[in-house]
Amino acid sequence: MAIDRGPWNALIDDDGSNEVGTLFGKEDIKTVILDPIDAALLGGGGVTTNVVTVTATGTVNNLACGPASLVTLIDCQNTAALTITGLAWTTAPRQGDTVVIQARNTGAVFLTQIDAASGHKFYNFIASGPTPLAPYSGRAVYVYQGTNSWWLQDHEQGAWITPAFAAGNFLGSGGMTWAVTAGQLQEYSYRVNGKTLFWNLIINGSTLSGSASNVVYFKLMSTYLPARGAFLPVILGNGGGSTTGMTQASLAVSPVAIYRSFLGEAYTIGSLSAYGAGFVEIQ
C-alpha cells in the first residue's frame, strides 16, 4: 500500500524570505510523516500484532480474535479437545494478514475445512477431516486471501495423536464381531503430514466371534477419506497361528480394512492380535 501523500502535498515551500511557507514542527512530523506511514503499514491504524488466548473446549464456531492485524497469534490453552471452525474479527482483515495457531496445553486442537458454521473459514490441505494439532506441539499458519478466507500455508501436527478409546472403532464384517478392550490396545495413533495420514496399531489379544469373514476394520478418525488405495503389511496372530495379512485403505470407506489374506481366507473365530503401521493419501 502506498503512503498517503495528501498531508505532504498540502505543505507549501518557503520562497526564501522565511515569511511564506509551512512551519514544520514536531506535530507536523507526526501528521505529515508518521501517521501516513502507520496507516500504510497497518491498513488504517490497526495493530501490528495481536495475541488471542483460548481456554475453551468443545467446538468454537467463530473464535473472537479482536481487531485484524499483520500477525495474530492464537494461543490455545485448552485442557481437552478443542475444534475451531472459523474466526471472527472486529475490523476487516487485509490481504496477506497472517494467523498462527498453536496448541500449548494438554488438549488437541482441530481446525475444520470450509465450515458453514463460521464466517471466516479455513481452507486446509485436507478436506475430508479436520487439520489436527497435537497437545503442546502442534501449529498451523494461515494467510488471508480475501472474501473471508484463510488459506493454510504451513502445518505441523507436532506429535502423534491417540484417539480416545471406543469399542465401536473396531468392526467385524459379514456377521463377524471384533471385540477389542482398552487394555488390549497398546498402540493406536495417527499423524497427518500434508495430505498423508500415517497410523500405528498394536493390539495384543482381542476376540472374534460370530460368522468367520476375511476382513476386520479399524477407525482412527472416522471422517478422513482415502484419496487412493494402499496395501501395507500387517502381522496378524489368529487362532493360535501367526500369519501375514495385508491392509487396504479402501476408497469407499474411511476405516482401514485388515484382510486375512489376498486369497480371501477367512479369519479363525477366537483370538486376534494385530501389529502394523501404514500410511495413505487422504482427501
Biggest sheet features: 10 strands, antiparallel
Number of domains: 3
The count of DSSP E runs of length 2 or more, i.e. the number of strands, is: 22
Distance between the termini: 37 Å
- Summed up, the helix count is 2
3D architecture notes:
The protein is mainly beta. It has 3 domains: 6-42, no CATH class; 47-156; 167-281, Sandwich (Immunoglobulin-like), CATH 2.60.40. The protein is built from 2 helices and 22 strands. The mean pLDDT is 85.
Features:
single chain; 283 residues; mainly beta; Immunoglobulin-like; 3 domains; ten-stranded antiparallel beta sheet; eight-stranded mixed beta sheet; 22 strands; 7% helix; 43% strand; rod-shaped
Provide a brief overview of the structure.
With 283 residues, the chain is mainly β. It has helices at residues 6-9, 26-42; strands spanning 47-54, 58-60, 63-64, 69-76, 82-84, 86-88, 98-103, 109-111, 120-123, 131-133, 139-144, 149-156, 170-171, 176-179, 185-193, 196-203, 207-210, 215-218, 231-238, 241-249, 256-259, 270-281.
